[in-house]
């Protein structure tokens, strides 16, 4: 397992591979906190409007630094909302919509229906 | 306005009357944050299992101080989830289920279905 992880890291980039959490292992508190943040709501809405693996991490238009954006992606992974994989120098993203819906029915839909309050952008 | 508030406070008790927020004026972020906390989840579940105005503030069995409990009630009021009124020395509570559901459909149900994770109680 460790050897496999090291090999994966070596073949992709200088970054450590993303760690994922299955939505079934996510406490309700974690799911709600992940979706409460306006920037993460914006990321989730953009992902919902794109196809799986279409969006790279650098393609999101949110008013935060790169480090903060990385932290937001980590929170979304820990909440079972986001799957990421490295492809060359890019890290690609997929919203785990079906898996998340199975464990938290209606929650993601609620966020996707609401406008991006607090970001100043419609 | 100030005179009115002072009079209202004088006729009920030593406390200032509770201030309420309509669920329609509550941002999604506020609603999600209010329901993310395990203690507030527990309060909401207990309220959902009781009739309107049946439960007084002192009747909840949660492992927090009185001051912390007051703060949790305030957060629930600000999220449009709780209505309170003073009756003699007691403050009575009502879950604003229908009004909240209208603006955040499915969210309260999701919380009520989940167990009280993080509280150590089933």
UniProtKB/TrEMBL annotation, chains A, B:
InterPro entries: ArsR-like_HTH, HTH_ArsR_DNA-bd_dom, WH-like_DNA-bd_sf, WH_DNA-bd_sf. One of its GO terms (molecular function) is DNA-binding transcription factor activity. Residues 1-25 are annotated as: Disordered. Residues 31-109 form the HTH arsR-type domain. Pfam families: HTH_20. This is ArsR family transcriptional regulator. It comes from Streptomyces ficellus.
């Amino acid at each position: 397992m460790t050897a496999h992880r090291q090999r994966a890291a070596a073949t992709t980039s200088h970054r450590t591979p993303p760690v994922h959490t299955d939505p079934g292992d996510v406490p309700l508190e974690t799911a709600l906190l992940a979706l409460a943040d306006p920037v993460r709501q914006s990321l989730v809405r953009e992902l919902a409007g794109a196809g799986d693996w279409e969006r790279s991490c650098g393609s999101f238009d949110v008013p935060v630094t790169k480090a903060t954006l990385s932290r937001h992606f980590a929170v979304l992974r820990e909440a079972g909302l986001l799957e990421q994989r490295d492809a060359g120098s890019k890290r690609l993203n997929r919203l785990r919509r079906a898996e998340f819906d199975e464990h938290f029915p209606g929650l993601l839909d609620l966020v996707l229906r609401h406008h991006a309050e607090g970001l100043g952008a419609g």
